[in-house]
Design brief:
The protein has helices at residues 34-48, 52-58, 62-65, 163-166, 174-184, 219-229, 232-242, 277-289, 312-323, 335-345, and strands at residues 2-10, 13-19, 23-28, 84-91, 94-101, 115-123, 132-137, 140-144, 150-152, 187-189, 204-205, 247-253, 256-262, 270-271, 297-301, 327-331, 352-359, 365-367. It is an alpha+beta fold. InterPro entries: ATPase_AAA_core, P-loop_NTPase, RecF-like.
Amino acid sequence: MITTLAVENYRSLSRLVVPLERLNVVTGANGTGKSSLYRALRLLADSARGGAVAALAREGGLRSTLWAGAEKPAQGAGRSGPVGLRLGFAGDDFGYAVDFGHPVPAASCFDLDPEIKRECTWAGPVLRPAALLSDRSGPSVRTRTADGEWHRSAGELRPYDSMLSEFADPQLAPDLLRLRERIRSWRFYDHVRTDADAPARSAQIGTRTPVLAHDGADLAAALQTIRETGDAAALNAAVDAAFPGSSVEITGQGGRFEVQLTQPGLLRPLGAAELSDGTLRYLLWTAALLTPRPPALLVLNEPEASLHPELLAPLAGLILTAARHTQVVVVTHATELADELERGAGPHRLGVNSVELVKDAYGQTEVAGREGPLDQPPWHWPKR
């Protein structure tokens, strides 16, 4: 489980170190940095897949994503050290940090692509020299073997490749491999589609689907998989809690699956094409949160969108059920959802880690109620 998330120089997140627990709810007014925190987690996941540089490019490149304020805004000062976007996390067993910087000027059409200047993994919650497991400085990588000796890579990494995606050798770097696979299991849900042309509204080819697709296209197959190999009772309870007396059925013909909702008083079930956006979205969250294959980390961005206020309590129940099996981060505008999670946490024997983001007078994102560095978890960045 991740216990600390650290971000530096990413949009409004000039320097942010956030403690994480089993269930985390991130709130705050518009423009306080909630989306930036969500994107920072996605960039960390992209690093394990070798896609962080491309993801930064889609955001406008490093120059567009770097914190635009001064290094010490209280003094109106500029930057005294090398400019870099730094991302990292740590848990009780492993930690990871990556430092993206500007490339060395060269005659290339890709000279705006950021380079990875430093990358480290370590054992335990805090980076220290004795705990290092792997260390990448520029193109060179060294890893600590099982007997404690250091092995330096024979080749050199390209500046845009992460050692997580390129150097996870089961013989020379088993810890790096385990960490990479753990990060690759992280799951993100942002904009599941419920528009008129959403794939979930029409029959789709169905195979066993323990993990709902990011756009919800395989909703019917995912729900049927829960019913056959997952927690069917929780699925039925979730539907009844949101729509009393209703039930979901999956019809199949010629290998194509379709969702149908049976409701009291109606003479026939409603097909997915007939459901309201809110009803369909709730069924999508049901499939995502009751997955028979829980990830190490599940991150939801604004799950309350398009939902009627009466559905927030059933949604909170789904999130609490998921948090029994996986670490969850919920980024939300809805204080009502946060309140429902607080109220429902007791029976589930879970605590809710509430993280309210605010901006200080200089435009930097901070955690509300934090008075100084001693109020945050210990964190050290690797130096270039």
